[in-house]
Specification:
Shape: globular
Number of domains: 1
Structural class: mainly beta
Helix content: under 10%
Length: 59
């Protein structure tokens, strides 16, 4: 797992859109909006993770 991948339940380091990755790291096309310091939501399958794809542009 890459340093930029986040597990479900981890606190989001940055507000933005997080894409769910498959168990082997493939893109799923499913995105979730998460606010900084909020936990990432549960994934649909075991072994999935999240990656930040679009940071929030407001302050």
């Amino acid at each position: 797992m890459s340093k930029n991948n986040f597990k479900p339940g981890e606190k989001a380091p940055i507000s933005g859109q997080y894409e769910m990755l498959g168990p082997r790291g493939g893109k799923t096309g499913i995105e979730r909006t998460v606010v900084k310091n909020e936990p990432l939501p549960p994934t649909l399958q075991a072994g999935q993770s999240y990656v930040l794809v679009d940071k929030t542009k407001t302050r």
